[in-house]
Amino acid sequence: MTLPKPIALTCGEPAGIGPELAVAAWRLLGGHIPFAYLGAPDHLPEDTPVQIISDLSEVPDAVTQGVPVLPIAFDGPRVAGKAQSKQAQGVIDAIETAVRLVQSGDASAICTLPIHKQALQEGAGFAYPGHTEFLSALAGGADVVMMLASEQLRVVPVTIHIPIKDVPDALTADLLETRIRITHRALKDQFGIADPRLAVAGLNPHAGEGGRMGREDLDMILPVIQKLEDEGMAITGPISADTMFHSEARRHYDSAICMYHDQALIPIKTLDFDKGVNVTLGLPFIRTSPDHGTAFDIAGKGFANPSSTIEALKMAWHMAGGSF
């Protein structure tokens, strides 16, 4: 069987825990999942066995000897816990290089370590709200969806980083339908689920309780679900969010579609806080990421938990067709 090409692991913010996580992941996965770290070799922890590469075709041999590093130029050394705006361009270059590699077929997927948006904005005029939007732009403006996934649950928030008071106005039938269609297609194409089952949460308590607690569930969410169900999609809802996430309920769907950020993220972080993976759906390539930030407060101290990064690499590998 032909194995997928290696995964491109971008360095993220050097001052955060990313470099430590990359090494910890290599120590566990290096002999099983080939990946290359795109960043500065001297930003990795001291005494890290490093294998400098110039091409990802060298990764399968290099990864058995050390962390394969495709060098990216950075301005100065890493200072753990303190972001330096002068290093912003290196972070951006690593992401752009990873996209070129996956678009050319030299990499099977991208896994991104956490970035620090303020440093990128101050140091390089970074014009995007975050990683996802930048990757969408690099992919030609693809319409993308954020999924949080673990072995126990997959969730997709329809609206993301906006105040609760703005959710009802932002939540439109077109947006909901688009998010559902992208999720359904990705579950088939990237997760290998032949007939995905989707469960859609209501916006209001008790999914509006027949209109007594708001009309959005009846007037906007339900018609979208009925339209997609009539097309043959296996989809149910709107369901009261307080009954969707216990173990028996989760057996009946492959992904939950949620109306806002916390409705989606609280359940998955309660069930599997350390192993949740951020997956960007809708891109023309595979992208995963650990579901946490740069953690400046513990950077360089040697006890950052690599579980989410390890799961992100494993999920990217599985989505690319590899086994572990």
Mean pLDDT: 93
Number of strands: 12
Strand order of the largest sheet: 3-4-2-1-5-12-11-6-7-10-8-9
Note the main sheet.
Answer: 12 strands, mixed
Uncertain regions spanning at least 5 consecutive residues:
none
CATH topology of the largest domain: Isopropylmalate Dehydrogenase
* Annotation field: number of helices: 11
Q: What is the CA-atom radius of gyration, in angstroms?
A: 20 Å
- Return the CATH architecture of the largest domain: 3-Layer(aba) Sandwich
Order of helices and strands: EHEEHEHEHHEEHHEHEHEHEEH
CATH class of the largest domain: Alpha Beta
Work out the count of structural domains: 2
Helical content class: 25-40%
Written overview of the protein:
The chain is α/β, with parallel strands linked by helices and 324 residues long. It has 2 domains: 7-142 and 283-319, 3-Layer(aba) Sandwich (Isopropylmalate Dehydrogenase), CATH 3.40.718; 145-270, Isopropylmalate Dehydrogenase. It is built from 11 helices and 12 strands. Strands 3-4-2-1-5-12-11-6-7-10-8-9 form a 12-stranded mixed β-sheet. Strand 11 and strand 12 (287-290) form a beta hairpin. The longest helix has 17 residues, at 88-104. The model has no long low-confidence stretch (mean pLDDT 93). It is found in: Cytoplasm.
Keywords:
324 residues, alpha/beta, Isopropylmalate Dehydrogenase, 2 domains, 11 helices, 12 strands, globular
What topology emerges from the helices and strands here?
Elements (H helix, E strand, L loop, with lengths): L6 E4 L7 H12 L5 E5 L10 E3 L6 H4 L4 E5 L16 H17 L4 E4 L4 H8 L6 H8 L6 E5 L4 E4 L9 H4 L2 H17 L7 E5 L14 H15 L3 E6 L7 H4 L4 E4 L2 H12 L4 E5 L5 E4 L16 H13 L5
Parallel strand pairs: 1-2, 1-5, 2-4, 3-4, 5-12, 7-10, 8-9, 8-10
Antiparallel strand pairs: 6-7, 6-11, 11-12
Helix pairs in contact: 1-11, 3-4
